[in-house]
Amino acid sequence: MAAAAHTPCPEFLDWELDSSTTNGLKQEKQLSASQRRYYSFCRRKSFAAFVASKRDDSREEGNTSWCCCGQTFKEHPAIHKHVARTHDTEIKQLTQATYECLLSQLEEEPEAQQPNEHKAEAVDISAWIPDTSHIPEEQLLKGPGKVILYYHYCQVEDPHVICAWQRALCEKLHLTGKVRVATEGINGTVGGTNMATDIYINAMRSHPLFKMDREDFKTSDGGAECFTDLRVGVYKEIVPMGVDPDVISYQSAGIHLEPEEFHKEVEALLANGDLCSDTILLDCRNFYESKIGQFTQCLAPNIRKFSYFPDYVDQNLELFRDKKVLMYCTGGIRCERGSAYLRSKDVCKEVYQLKGGIHKYLERFPEGFYRGKLFVFDERYTISSNSDIISDCRYCGCPWDQYKLCSTQFCCQLVLSCHGCRRDGHTACCPTCQTKGRAQNEASSGAPRHKEECECTGGRPRIPQDV
């Protein structure tokens, strides 16, 4: 979309931010001040971009005009009034798409640097960096490796200091991956050689703030090649649930069950079958994770992001009323906040969570009640402990559980397409994207584009109801 040369007149921007304008977004009174500012910014940007797209550049310089709906407009107020009155629906759709894209980016990007960030430079972090002078650089760069997954909740007075230490530590050890730091703790998944990751674990365990145990780290085969780069940043939450940690704290989490205890609970649930109507086995991961691997007879919400989990709970409270809930996720961190949120609703009889998540369960029970693959957020996409395939090829329906990114540029959806279907050209996540991909290949453009959504996302409610 062309860049706007002029901003639209203010009188056509002051629409009421009600439910019809936001097309499903929260009403104005439910939005925070920052959300209202974001939405207003997106609304102005969308309006200006729409007007700019109608500009007639064929005329001589100095004779600006706009063509729309078979009419020619030579004054700014005229084209602005026409767009505001005639194209209200299109502007609303553009605004919502831009707003959701912005929120998605804010979820993934670190917080803006705080005024007290200079403290990170004033604190000497060298004491927390291990001496590796006696270790050949080759052992840090090459050889067998692994991927580490961990988190630790604790009070972090200055997360920027910890962030600086983490970046220096990972760079020294040639680790790649992602580390999130917040005032509520730290969450990371990094890859490197066995030597490098062992040093990293020891450094984490010896840091006076974290005091972690070796069992707090989940490991799997891999290495630095499992990630494209290193990303270390300061965030509001160490797992993005979208709820202020000061409002819903990890300290209100459910009761932790060791893998052996969780296994017995699931065994009893399956043994009783339909007779056990007071217990829910809840998968609090995203739909594409549970699609390829899950516990037998679990409830797997059809959500696209963990930040949708609170709304899912709110819309399905009766489902959980007077029930015993057994929650699980990949490594345990989402259950910490997810169980706290569920408990805050005061509808469940009991809320339990699998300590260490599926990772730790599979270490103890590789052929247990969890069947299929375990989705991981790196270049591997999945790891496995059993041979079961519980999902199908999106096109031919044969058993298949190996994800690939949709081949359509800017889509970013994952697709299950078997080798045979990929050879036949079925490499997109849906027919709409497949057609769109062909069109892009035929007429590629260097112009920047927004991340697109296709029928895969459009056909899935943001917060589905499972009652």
UniProtKB/TrEMBL annotation:
Pfam families: Rhodanese (PF00581), Rhodanese_C (PF12368), TSTD2_N (PF23949), UPF0176_N (PF17773). Residues 275-370 form the Rhodanese domain. Signal peptide: none annotated. Residues 438-467 are annotated as: Disordered. It comes from the Eukaryota. InterPro entries: Rhodanese-like_dom, Rhodanese-like_dom_sf, Rhodanese_C, TrhO, TRHO_N, TSTD2_N. This is Thiosulfate sulfurtransferase/rhodanese-like domain-containing protein 2. CDD domains: RHOD_YceA.
